[in-house]
Task: structure prediction
Amino acid sequence: MQEVVQVAQDTVVLGQHPGEDGAVSDATGTVVAAVIAFAAAVLGAVIAGMYAKRGAEAGGRKAVEAAFAQVHGQAAAEHWQWVRSQRHQSFAALLAAYAALDEVLVRITPETRGGAGLDEATGRELRERTVELKTKTSQLALWGPDEAYVLAHALTGKSMATVAALLQAASIGSPDPSADWSNYDHVRDQMSQAYASFLQRAGEIIRDPLQPVG
Result:
């Protein structure tokens, strides 16, 4: 009887295998933890990749925008330099045209005032110089600035008035030659003053590194 009980007890002990359930639970927990860690790593990599991609795209857009801004700024600066060069050339051309007309007036006025009159060649020369001055003034209007064009236009107007006054004073049969020559001297002075005004402002504009655009 005692032997039977002892065998039964041994059987019960062998069937239970103490510690087996604990070992299985530990293994399962380890596997689950490993799976979770792997999933977290994969998810983290995906998220990091998304942010890296967005960062790269944003950085790329900023680089392209910066490049476009630089190109645009450089093109604008080059264009402004070209306009400035054209403006200075227009100033010089207008002053040269005025000097040519003034030279003719200085040359023929004493003889004409003395009663020599104007021959056809001299009259044609005056007209050509006047047309040239008007042409250069019109070209300056393309480049500005507006204030320079206003002064140039005034200079051209006074120059044309001076030529007209000279033709009137030199005409044969004038009822009052003295008054005609007095009027010529007056408009000639106005012409000189208009030239001085334009010359002064043109010089200031040329020397100014921040010239007005308009």
Summary: The mean pLDDT is 80.
